[in-house]
Amino acid sequence: MSVPLDPDQSACIADNLETIQQRIAKAALRAGRDAKDVSLIAVSKIHLVDTVRAALEAGHCVYGENRVQEAAQKWPTLKADFPDVSLHLIGPLQTNKVSDAVALFDVIETVDRPKLAAALAEEMTKQSRHLPCFIQINTGEEPQKAGVMPAESDNFIADCRNTYGLTVSGLMCIPPQDEEPALHFAFLREIANRNGVAGLSMGMSADFETAVELGATHIRLGTAVFGERPVIN
Ligand SMILES: *Cc1c(COP(=O)(O)O)cnc(C)c1O
What we know:
By secondary structure, the protein is of the alpha/beta class. The chain is 45% helix and 15% strand. It has one domain: TIM Barrel (Alpha-Beta Barrel). It has helices at residues 7-30, 49-57, 68-81, 98-104, 114-127, 150-162, 181-194, 208-213, 223-226; strands spanning 39-43, 62-65, 86-89, 107-111, 132-136, 167-172, 199-201, 218-221.
């Protein structure tokens, strides 16, 4: 059963999207960039289908989910209703979910190890869906976090391109909670530049303007678009 959102909440999401676009435009201007080169990924994880639908109805087309299983429950119907949607996988991907991920997502942002790169390449060939990939870099070298270590990034990017034949469209990072995000954004850009990678997925609700000033081509915003995520017990 689908419960329609109360009209206030839909209006609020539409307003949020509008406000965010204005803030992106200002940050881009400060950096001498074109705001059109910054894509807002609305991170819909945990939010209910009807909440996401409000953003879709407001005309927003780019979304991010962090779990394959959750996305597979929410998105097939939404994609059927809104065929222009582009869905980014922004969370860790296990090799046993690669087939579902390739079928559902349009961009994989979290490629971070050879085994996954190989599995993705094989599955994309099988499904004839050659998706753009981002390589996740663990810029803070945090042991518990996904992502390639910075020292291994040049080799891994080259292997993704040459050994596995993936289309490396960008790099992605999630800075450590307690560190200045600007340092990580600048570091990610440096790795991208020296490897000739164009895309930079960096910046979340709390720091996206800084990310835009430092060259983000994709910012991943959940709370700023949809409000706080519901608490699941
Ligand atoms: C949840 C999530 C976001 C969005 O976080 P907000 O702070 O709500 O904007 C961005 N990137 C990743 C990888 C996430 O998991």
